[in-house]
Amino acid sequence: MTDSAPTTGKRTRDQRTESGSRRDLSWPPQPEALPLPVTDNHAHLDFIDGKEELSVQQQLQLAIDSNVTGVITIGCDLAAARWTRALLDGSVEQPADPALFRNHLRAGVSIHPNTAVEHRRGTDRDGNELPSLEDAIAEVSDLLDHDHMVTIGETGLDWFRTKRADEHARTAQIDSFRAHIALAKEKGLPMQIHDRDAHQDVLDVLDADGIPDRTVLHCFSGDADFARACVQRGAYISIAGPITFKSNDSLRDALAAVPLNRVMVETDAPFLTPVPYRGRPNSPYLIPHTMQTIADVHGVSLEDACAAVQATTAEVYGWSGA
Ligand SMILES: [Zn+2]
Ligand SMILES: [Zn+2]
């Protein structure tokens, strides 16, 4: 390990949208609780968002009130990964009742594809020096050695923020993705994939290196053909808030093409808040809106959808919230 920088704290999400307008920072109301428990298998609890900051403890308690009884928090750059490990170690926040974290919280860490490009370049967006990509992934490997680290991720490819035509960026992302695949196999951990505008390249890398046993397409964004291609390879898809967006018929077709024993649910909080609260802060307690859409798309009761998704989660991570 080459970098001895201290564990950093949480970070604050941008209060403006990409187009520069101010976001509505009010927290959406608590939805009706789900009839059976589910787990949010991908959230970023290291982000501060909303008019009032919610602690991890508060977010978990609100989630439990919605019957979202498990949350997997993802730290996907070095600062976030260190913070996430410190959270598990009890050194950044301790709940009044230690059983709250023990029973309802698990985590995963990685170097995000876009961050991999910065490590390869040697500087972050503000010009601060960064360790090499190899050293960063070596530290991620060390941070993963904890009983409550249940996944490596998110890794993968992103041609939205860094362009595929940029050879330097493309090579950095592919190298990083391949290193995470190797690490998932070495540690026997499930792997969460971030795929933005990179469906075919993601499949090509998985086919070349061999897909890890438990691979999850987090915030699945492809069409039905791509969903089938993932499931044929043994992968799982995780559905986030965009499934509720009006314009996303092709995403709903993709979900319909996949049996529920291959489907999980997530928030990607604080991002991607489901309808009708799109644009406002997101937190695991808002999963019921997304779960209702999953049930509707599959034409099953909310109860049956929750049971199926929770069983899939337990199968993939060997854990689902108590
Ligand atoms: Zn992602
Ligand atoms: Zn994410």
UniProtKB/TrEMBL annotation:
Residues reported in the UniProt entry to bind a divalent metal cation 2: H194, H218
Entry binding sites for a divalent metal cation 1: H42, H44, E154, D268
Molecular functions per Gene Ontology: hydrolase activity, acting on ester bonds; metal ion binding
Any one annotated GO CC term: cytosol
Annotated EC: 3.1.21.-
InterPro entries reported in the protein's UniProt record: Metal_Hydrolase, TatD-like
Protein name listed in UniProt: TatD DNase family protein
